[in-house]
Amino acid sequence: MSFDELLKELQGAKSNEGVQNHVSFEMLFHETFMSRYSSFKSFDEFLRKGNFDVKTLEDIDNIPDELFDRHVDRETDFGSWKSMLDRANAEYEAGHRV
Q: Whole-model pTM above 0.90?
């Protein structure tokens, strides 16, 4: 399974702290979002920089919140994973309103 395929399957994974189940990480954390709020072009790069070995949905779930929050704080304009996720979700919803 490629990383892009995995991202498409991340609906309802660790991120379901506010993300609608039909929205994948790939859609939320697209290149424009990642470039705007971090020095990365992809969510995959962001994960690799943190040495997170993500091959399955469970791998995302198993990243300790405190560890992921520190990585987000260090590598993005956000102070926590939840704030990054909330912003991505809000921007996604704003861009997809009918």
A: no
